[in-house]
Amino acid sequence: MVSKKSVEDTIARLERAIASGVMPPAANNLAERISKRLKSPVRLAIMGPKGAGKSQLLNFLAGDKVIPDDVRLPSVLVAWGETKKVDCTLADGKIKSLETFDIDEINRLKPVFIRLRMPLPALKKISILEVVTGTNAAEQQRALAWAARSTDIALWCTQVFSETESELWNTIPGALQEHSFLIMTKADQHQGKAAREKQLAAIKKAAEGRFNSFYHIDTLQALASRRENGKVDTTKLANSGGQELIAAVLNAVNQGVQASLDGAVILFARYDIPMTGVPAPAPQAPAQIIEDAPPEEPTELLVPKDAPAPQADLDDFNSEIVAYLTDRVQELKIQLSKTDAPDSDMVMAQCYEDVEWLVEQLTERSRDNPDILHTLDACQDAADMMLLLQLENHDSAVEDAVVLLLQIKRDFEQKLAA
User: Fold this and answer.
1) Could you say which DSSP state residue 160 is in?
2) To pair with 343 at 20 to 30 A between CA atoms, which of 71, 295, 392, 409?
3) 3-class SS at 13?
4) H and E: helices and strands count for the chain
């Protein structure tokens, strides 16, 4: 378990290092991104078809009955706030704030997106987005693309993982699929452990290779395990599958935080950043948790009701990227074949240069196509990893860098094939 103190100390050390000016610009930018990630809650998105039990799962993960039963709402983001507040984004883009979760008033406003702030302990570590989609396939794909741009961990709720669900999930970026859970909700519909395991096995087979992990949960039982006095019936929680799911989510959250801490350690070692002694920046207000909201555009407004978003230009762009990376990988292969002891610094520099070029191209294109933003984030993470590999300079760094470049190339090839 990552301690709060280690995170706070690392943030303070990063900020001192940035203010000191001892690091080059690329390392400074990396330090700023690591610091932001450490200050921000991990962003969960709950996805899946209508009626899959997404709201109940949100309530369970948040630790309170946030979404009332039997209400129909648009996509909802639940995040930390010192006091409860409801921000409703209306169809004209205006935001109407409410002090209470007044269903009648919300229905009257007919918002297309709701942001709910609440002082719940769980929300200091995570924010939770429930993604609500329409019935049109283009709307559904657009909504998922919109949500993926601001998601660190995706939770797909289902009872069967149908062909339609499979097609929708295939539109999710590969980098996010690697950090996703498939959750068989409403497990109480399958009487007995054997029946549940059989159904989950069938779902695993249908979704093989496209999720990091698979779980089942009887969400109603999991919710009922929390008593009114605040205590938890641990037996009921374990039997529901909720305990295993919470442990998995917390583990994923901690892994993300630990990865950021490890990156900071490499920076500190490379540039001799001491625990103390680096000139401190001008006094600032204490670091606050950054609530990473989804893009301002509501899901239902992002695409015409009768047609999908244009794809031809994006396919041309992906083809250009694949062609560039193919040429660069071929150059690397030629260089590596010429000697048994390749110049590791040269290879690392080329890999980093290639990923930085890709980040520049994606940054430019994202101004016209916001759907590219998640790919941009993934490539920026790859650039950060390349830089860390250069700084760490361990024996397998060259191999790791080439493998990472090949993975990026495969990801773009998959985008073309989709």
Assistant:
1) S
2) 409
3) helix
4) 15, 9
pLDDT of residue 75: 94
| DSSP code string of 176-206 | HHTTEEEEE--GGGS-SHHHHHHHHHHHHHH
Closest CA to 324 of 287, 361, 292: 361
Q: How would you write 257-318 as a 3-class SS string?
A: HHHHHHHHHHHHHHCCCCCCCCCCCCCCCCCCCCCCCCCCCCHHHCCCCCCCCCCHHHHHHH
The DSSP letter of residue 121 is G
Write down the pLDDT at residue 305: 37
220 Cβ neighbours under 8 A, 6+ residues apart:
56, 188
Q: Which two tokens stand for residue 403?
A: 């493998």
145's tokens:
């693309």
348 sits in the region (left: phi over 0; alpha: psi -120 to 50; else beta) called alpha
Q: Which residues are 213's β-sheet partners?
A: 181
CB atoms within 10 A of CB 67: 20
CA-closest candidate to residue 21, choices 260, 278, 274? 278
Q: How far is CA 96 from CA 79, 87, 112, 207, 291, in A?
A: 17, 6, 11, 40, 19
CA-derived radius of gyration, the chain: 23
CA distance 347 to 414: 25
Torsion over CA: 351, 355, 360, 365 (sign): positive
Half-sphere exposure of 15 (CA within 13 A, CB side): 18
Residues in the chain: 418
Chunked into runs of 10 residues, the chain (418 residues) has average pLDDT values of 88 92 87 91 95 95 91 93 93 90 91 94 95 86 87 94 94 88 91 87 92 94 88 93 94 90 88 71 53 48 39 74 88 78 79 86 72 74 80 74 84 76
- Claim: this prediction has a pTM higher than 0.90: no
pLDDT at 369: 65
Return the structure tokens found at 32.
């700023």
